[in-house]
Design goal:
By secondary structure, the protein is α+β, with helices and mostly antiparallel strands. 30% of the residues lie in helices and 20% in strands. It has 8 helices and 10 strands. The chain has a 4-stranded mixed β-sheet. It has a 4-stranded antiparallel β-sheet with strand order 5-10-6-7. Helix 3 packs parallel to helix 8.
Length: 266
């Protein structure tokens, strides 16, 4: 009887302890994040997992800074939000799908470590290591393999450059904000400037393209590779073709295989 009473007493203690343990909420799924306004999120896909992450992070930064601008707050950089983001990765047989999110309250409460300045354009920075390969900055990643979606968006074939596209005018004739971006070697810094230009009214819209079809004809294109190095800035499409703002030659986004694209309108 004493043994039975002791067991009952021990069980009561265990049950009481369990009652006080904090409940561990399950990690949200991609659908949970998309339908919950308490998160800010962005997603992208690519055959290369690093590029998929890079595209999603670039778009997330735009979404975060748009939300902060609406609340009268200063823009953040990728380094400001990186440790507070979570990535959900899904894989098909040929592509990696990256969804990155951050709690809206956290995104709005963060304080910029530094603000973008013209010195960034005057003093080019050394190439940065893509976030996916940066060991110093913690990032939560959840990976699961799923069947290839039937609605996968395939890149469109961009119109070849028209032979009658006139050469670019001298750089002095380009808009001031475009001339500034042409001096910046890193896409991470260029995104800061684009967000700043938008807050000042010099840029009306901007976004990250997941496919060529998503790029507006009347938008400039900032193209960057997997190391965030800017490869080119292309003009809006004129007479069916774009031109390279640096060389003045006819050029297309499709020429830059495996690169990310940020478009912006003036």
């Amino acid at each position: 009887m004493n043994a039975l009473n002791s067991c009952k007493a021990l069980l009561a203690v265990v049950m009481l302890a369990l009652a006080w343990l904090p409940a561990f909420a399950a990690e949200p799924t991609a659908d949970d994040v998309k339908f919950d306004s308490s998160y800010i999120w962005a997603e992208a896909s690519d055959m290369d997992k690093t590029m998929a992450y890079q595209k999603a992070m670039a778009e997330l930064l735009i979404e975060v800074n748009d939300a902060r601008a609406a609340s009268g707050k200063k823009s953040l950089t990728e380094s400001d939000i990186l440790s507070h983001t979570t990535e959900i990765v899904e894989k098909s047989t040929t592509r990696t799908y990256s969804l990155i999110y951050i709690p809206r309250a956290k995104a709005l409460s963060l304080t910029p470590k530094k603000s973008a300045s013209k010195s960034a354009a005057a003093k080019p920075k050394a190439a940065k290591t893509p976030p996916a390969a940066t060991a110093e900055t913690p990032r939560t990643t959840k990976t699961r393999t799923t069947p290839k979606p039937a609605t996968e968006v395939k890149p469109a074939t961009e119109v070849k450059p028209a032979t009658d596209v006139k050469p670019a005018a001298a750089s002095e004739e380009l808009p001031a904000c475009v001339r500034t971006l042409m001096k910046i070697p890193m896409a991470t810094d260029a995104l800061d400037f684009i967000a700043d230009f938008k807050s000042k009214g010099a840029v009306s819209e901007h976004g990250v393209a997941r496919s060529l079809e998503e790029i507006p004809d009347d938008a400039y294109c900032l193209i960057f590779d997997s190391t965030y190095t800017v490869k080119a800035i292309l003009s809006p499409s004129v007479s069916g073709g774009r031109r390279n703002c640096h060389s003045g030659n006819a050029d297309t986004v499709a020429s830059y295989h495996g690169c990310g694209v940020v478009w912006f309108k003036l």
